[in-house]
Design brief:
209 residues, alpha+beta, 2 domains, seven-stranded antiparallel beta sheet, two-stranded antiparallel ribbon, 8 helices, 9 strands, globular
């Protein structure tokens, strides 16, 4: 019985040895991807993910300005996810298309879903949105604040640390960053007189801010 078991182990070892190129190389590639690819590594390495967040916050704090395109890249690296759309204001043709908005206030267009970031992309006719939010929260929680940017600390119902991010940008900035829309003449008409309002809830493991 032991001899048969030993022979089976030898057969397996010989198979792996003779097929190393087909087994070992792909395994090395997968391992390297898990260690080096940012979007993969962020899924399992809490320290790496937290460093990404710290570096991103620090880069904003230097100038007190948020680059929307850089944030979209950061979001995908920090917590890869997917978008859905609000059928009240967006329809799906070959691409997403803005088809309507509320006469006043905020109109939600797209939603970003991922394990650690939840986002809402909206347009608004109210350029005072951030001031109204600031007035409703404890000022001691505010991490960064400018005319068009707000980041503040919070915890969820499970006491998990999180950050709330709001920024208000022009529609021109939205066009540069958000490539989901074609910005046809019909869409530009709807967008006239509005601003791009972004909101994200960012979950993080280590509260180091």
């Amino acid at each position: 019985m032991k001899l048969k078991k030993s022979n089976r182990l030898k057969s397996v070892f010989n198979f792996i040895k003779s097929n190393y190129f087909f087994i070992g190389i792909p395994l090395l590639i997968i391992t390297a991807a898990a260690l080096l690819q940012p979007t993969v590594r962020a899924n399992w390495d809490n320290s790496y993910r937290n460093n990404l967040l710290n570096e991103w916050i620090s880069s904003i704090a230097k100038e007190n300005v948020l680059n929307a395109q850089e944030f979209w890249l950061f979001r995908e690296r920090y917590s890869p996810g997917h978008f859905t759309y609000n059928p009240d204001h967006v329809d799906l043709y070959q691409t997403f298309r803005i088809v309507d908005r509320n006469n006043s206030g905020k109109s939600e267009l797209l939603y970003y879903h991922s394990p650690r970031i939840k986002s809402v992309e909206s347009i608004t006719t109210n350029n005072n949105e951030l001031n109204e939010i600031v007035a409703a929260i404890n000022s001691e929680l505010i991490l960064l604040k400018s005319e068009n940017l707000l980041i503040y600390r919070d915890v969820d119902d499970n006491s998990t640390p999180l950050l709330h991010l709001y920024f208000l940008k022009s529609i021109d900035e939205m066009r540069k960053t958000n490539g989901f829309f074609d910005y046809l003449s019909s869409e530009r008409e709807i967008l006239e007189g509005t601003y791009w309002l972004h909101y994200s809830k960012i979950f993080h493991v280590m509260d180091s801010f």
